[in-house]
Amino acid sequence: MGQVLGDVLGLAAGVAVSPLPVIAIIIVLATPRGRVNGLVFATGWVVGLSALGAVMLVIGGKGGAGAHGQPADWVGALKLALGVALLLLALRLWRHRPADVTQAQLPQWMATIDRFTPVKTFLLALVLSAGNLKNAPLTIAAAASISSSGLPVGEQIGALAIFVLVASLGLLIPLGVFLVMGERAKNTLGNWKEWAARHNTAVMAVLFFVFGLKLLGDGIDVLNS
Asked: What pTM, to 2 d.p., does this model score?
């Protein structure tokens, strides 16, 4: 399992560094029912990543392992396609980044988060995890690596669980700070929110580029092996 974890933990870190979801949970924590809504948001995030990863494991199955324990060609082709897609998104984001970070604006839907019911909060977390343009490709790539490893089902599930845990740290840390510090955490979380809002586009562009290159390289390596 060690080799598989070495392959997917970097992808998990890429999912964990997600400015918009971090901003979203900070806004959720600032609502009157911040403690409950924060836990609901974190649960939705974990469920979204777990469900997407589980679907990929089922699709891949043990058939994902090719000859001599090497990943099957479809895994390489998938990573290659995901890598190209992330590189194109990186180029688009970089070209459209704000010249002045102080003028960066958040999506309009974020202004309504404080009025969300727990159900809407849960659904928002699902979308930001499994439907995110960065997180979905990275999760799919990680699950493809796990499914192609030839590991027993139990170990594959364990590897996916570790991936989801690491990928959720970006949200669990603000939630933990809030649960421990309560009202005292508002200034700290507010500063995190401001930084993430200003640098969201640039951070996402760099992450798209870095992980796009990684998936591109992984795909080429699998297809040439």
From this structure: 0.84
Range of the domain at 135: 2-224
Taking phi over 0 as left and psi of -120 to 50 as alpha, with beta for the rest, 97 belongs to beta
Query: Whole-angstrom Cα distance, residue 77 to residue 79?
Result: 6
CA 221, distance to chain mean position in Å, is 24
Give the 3-state secondary structure of residue 71. Answer: strand
Q: Is 58 exposed, middle or buried (0-12, 13-18, 19+ CB in 10 A)?
A: exposed
pLDDT digits (tens, 9 = 90+) for 176-197: 999 888 777 878 888 888 888 7
* Phi, psi dihedral angles at 72 (to 5 degrees): -70, 160
Tokens representing 135 are 């997180």
**Residue in the structure block whose two tokens are 């990275």:** 138
Number of residues assigned to the chain: 225
* Number of folded domains that form the chain: 1
Q: Mapping DSSP to helix (H, G, I), strand (E, B) and coil, where does residue 65 land?
A: strand
Which H or E run contains 18? none
Vertex 68, ends 64 and 70: CA angle to 5°? 45
Between 101 and 130, the higher pLDDT residue: 130
Angle in degrees, 0-180, between the axes of helices 34-60 and 118-130, rounded to the nearest 10? 40
Helices (H) and strands (E) in the chain, counts: 9, 0
Q: Are 152 and 69 in contact (CB under 8 A)?
A: no
